[in-house]
Amino acid sequence: MLFLLCPSQAGGAVTEKDEQRDRREQTPAAADVTMVLAVLAGRLDKVEGQLSEFHRRSAHRESIIDRLHEENQRLRGGIERAVLDPIVADLIRLYDQLSQEARRLAADGAEQRLLRSFADDIAEILDRCGYEVFSAALGDPFDRDRHRPLGVVPCADESRHNTVAEVVAAGFAERATGRVRRPLHARFYQYSPGPGAAQGRGAIPDQAHFQ
């Protein structure tokens, strides 16, 4: 018995088979793409992990370099200080001697410019070593971090109490850090009301006296 199919039915049957065949042919290709993407994702994860490890090691290496640099600077500073300290101490003593002699000559009315120029030369040498000279003006208040009292000068003016009466020797400080290498030596006014206020210079006071 023969069955006749109309063209539309025959065409519909052929199209459905073609679509099924196409789906079967496309399935392996989609699977391949998924596999490729999975492989790429795995490789990207690996690269990302390697980059993270590289950055971690780089940061660790930089921290070691920074620490070694700091240690080198401290060692260098310690060596320089150990070498310079005795020289600086001798230069400060020489500066004090020249300055004191220049003041003595000036007080006697003698020529003191030559000695003063020598003292200034010593100050320039100390400046090149990283130390600067500092002084104080009469009436400056006592500074326990920068001043060393050598004596007191009685006075009847209470407003001048614990202020500089006479600079005996200049002070020296590190220019880079501000640390006092040698405090300024001075005599300070001490308020003493009454007849004893003008009886001359007192004894060397204790630092705790100047508060």
Explained architecture:
The protein has about 210 residues and is an alpha+beta fold. The chain has 2 domains: about 55-130, no CATH class; about 135-210, no CATH class. The protein is about 55% helix and about 15% strand. It is built from 2 helices and 6 strands. The protein has helices spanning about 5-105, 115-130; strands at about 130-135, 145-155, 165-170, 170-175, 180, 185-190. It has a 3-stranded antiparallel sheet. A 3-stranded mixed sheet has the order 2-6-3. Strand 4 (about 170-175) and strand 5 form a beta hairpin. Helix 1 runs antiparallel to helix 2 (about 115-130). The protein is elongated, with a radius of gyration of 45 Å. The model is unreliable at about 1-10 (pLDDT under 50).
Largest sheet: 3 strands, antiparallel
Percent helix: 55-70%
Give the strand tally: 6
User: In terms of per-residue confidence, which ranges show pLDDT below 50 for 5 or more consecutive residues?
Assistant: 1-12
Would you summarize the structure shown here?
The chain is an alpha+beta fold. 55% of the residues lie in helices and 16% in strands. It is elongated.
